[in-house]
Amino acid sequence: MPLTHRVERVAEQVREEVSQILATDVADPGVGLVTVTRVKVTPDLSLARVYWTLMGDAAERKKTTKALQRAAAFVRHLLAERMTLRRAPEVVFQFDEGLAAHARVEEILHELHEVEAARARVDDTVPETAAEAGTSAPADVAPPGDDPARG
Questions:
Q1: What residues contact residue 25 under an 8 Å CB cut-off, 6+ apart?
Q2: What confidence tens digit (pLDDT) does each residue in 104-129 have?
Q3: CA distances from 14 to 9, 52, 84, 103, 106 (A)
Q4: Local structure of 10: helix, strand or coil
Q5: Taking 70 as the threshold, does the pLDDT of residue 92 lie above it?
Q6: Which of 3, 49, 133, 139 has the smallest number of Cβ neighbours within 10 A?
Q7: In whole angstroms, what is the distance from residue 34 CA to residue 127 CA?
Q8: Range among 54-63, 71-80, 120-129 with highest mean pLDDT value
Q9: Torsion 61-62-64-69 (CA) sign
Q10: Which domain holds residue 73?
Q11: Where are the alpha helices (H) located in the chain, listed in sequence order?
C-alpha cells in the first residue's frame, strides 16, 4: 500500500525531531553518537520505527540498544510536546542492518576489483600464446602437408 503524503511528512518530521532529541535532550551516556537513518510510521500514525546506526563494535551497539530502549518513553513524551498530532506515535528503536549490509557489499566489491586488477597485471606480464611469445613459424615456410609443388 503506498504511503500518503501526510505519513511521509510525519515520518520525516519524526526523524528530525528524534535526531535533535537524542543529540541534545537525552542525558543517558549509553546513547552515544547515534545517527538516525530513517523512520517508518504506520499509516494510522500510532507507531514510529526509528532506524539508527552507530560507529563502534558489537559491545557498544548492545549498550546503545539498551539505552535507547530506556529512553523511548522520554523521546515519545518530547515528541508529543514538539509535534502537532493528537497522539504521539509509540517510538521503537531498531538498528539499521541495511547500512551494515551495504558496507559489507561495498567491501566485497572492492576486494573483487583488487583481485581483477592483480589478475590483469599478471596477464600482461605472461604471454598467453606462442604467437605472443615470438615463437611462431616464419611466414614463408608452409606447414607440413601443404606442399604447393605436389599439387
A1: 74, 78
A2: 788 888 888 888 888 888 877 766 55
A3: 9, 13, 11, 26, 30
A4: helix
A5: yes
A6: 139
A7: 54
A8: 71-80
A9: positive
A10: 5-96
A11: 5-24, 58-82, 97-125, 130-133
Q: 53, 99 in Cβ contact below 8 A?
A: yes
- Residue 32: which of 65, 81, 2 has the closest Cα? 65
The answer to whether residue 119 is domain-embedded is no
What is each CA distance from 140 to 51, 56, 104, 132, 147, in whole angstroms? 75, 71, 58, 19, 12
Residue 18 · residue 79 · CB < 8 Å: yes
DSSP string, 129-143: SHHHHT-PPPTTSPP
Q: What is the DSSP code string of 24-44?
A: HT---TTS-SEEEEEEEE-TT
Assess contact for 7 and 28: CB atoms under 8 A: no
Is residue 31, in this structure, part of any structural domain at all?
Answer: yes
CB-CB contact of 28 with 67 (8 Å): yes
In a domain? residue 115: no
Q: What is the CATH number of the domain that holds 69?
A: 3.30.300.20
